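<discrete_fold_record>
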Amino acid sequence: MTPQNELPTTYLVVGAGPFGLLTARGLLHQGIDVEIVERHDDVGGIWDIGNPGSPMYDTCHFITSKTLGGYVDFPMPDDYPTYPSQRQVLDYVRAFARAYGLYERTRFGTEVVRAEPVGEGDDAYWRVETSDGEERLYRGVFAACGQQWWPYVPELPGADEFLGEIYHSSQYHSPQQFAGKRVLVVGAGNSGVDIAVDAAEHGEASFISTRRDYYWFPKQVYGVPTPDLMTGKAPFPQMPLLGRTPDPMETVALVLAAIGPMSAYGLPEPSDPVGSTHPIVSDLALHCFTHGTLQHRPGIARITADAVEFVDGRSERVDVIVLATGYDMRYPWLPDGAVDYEEGHPVFHLGTFGRVRGLYGVGTIHPSRADAWQIFDQLTHLAIADAKATLTGENAENLRVLREEYEIDLKGGFPYLDVRRNVNQAADAPLRQLFDDLQHRFGIEMPTELKGGFFPAGTEAAMTATAAVTA
């Protein structure tokens, strides 16, 4: 057994995107030494459109409202719009890094080449080699590399015969790419819908192809951001005709009634329940469908030299095909077996623990809630508690139980569709149960509210940093 005073005590965070930064703040808050390694030249991750491989585009906006989006105890500036732009989110993330001294903890322009565990159990630590040729030792590694760096490109019949442009949505950056062109977007994730709208507004014609039928929502309904309302994070506005506050199921029904049938927009009616796959939130898409500048098509049967044939027998001549088909997540610097994968997505126990001691995943699940950044902060505190137990022995037995014995179905039995994107989907009820268990059964401290004062320096730091953002 290696003496504790001979083992490294610093933890490594791989990635200085939004979730790597919140991880580093949490570690420092618990008195744990941390170093961040970032392959780009500044913090921000995918939100920096200048980073090679970033999936950002000029018209991108935050899909979550500024009220529920962002960091715990570090609110977005009051003068931000309800849905901030890509540039505003980037400024906000960098302000957060400045406020908590995270720039000083980061090695920029440095990529992890290889990380391997050494030893077992309480004696385990990690040997990490980086692109600058250095090799350093860490007690553990937090993989916070982001969800959208490895494009998933499906095989489409005839794609190799197409004479026009065909590329993944990660290569789209500006509406100018569509000037004078007929565009087909394949897939209806948030970025795919934005891109289809850009094509409708700047191209000659725009089509969006989906294999599944979706619920489409505006970004605001009854004067409230739709995701906030649908997930119960914002109160339903007073409705004198109803005479009371609607319950959650009634809220969903009222929102759907306000939108009307999907067929009113030329869209197929979904047969699965709301939430079985991600809902689409876009005022502009509904506007474009209503005005005929964007048209829906079903799945693709075959691609020819200059056209796409769909499974319903229709065909459209197109110049550009954009594959908004999602992303895989990979950690090529980890040894085989360190992480389980399912359909291109890493599966960490409780969204946190890897298969090797001292390896933690950050931002790997897909919460069915609007406050995803808070959820990732809470899950990270599970990993941080394990790191603290490793270093000090504090609460060690509870952490062992969580790593080795505790189980919970994060999908909660909800009928999510069996698709790649839903591999790590997490429902609201089991997440609430998990966080309640972690706090009250296992004694783990974590933030419970976006503005709860969990981080003592947060309020003062936020005032200083957000002032810098808006200056």
Summary: The longest helix spans residues 372-392.
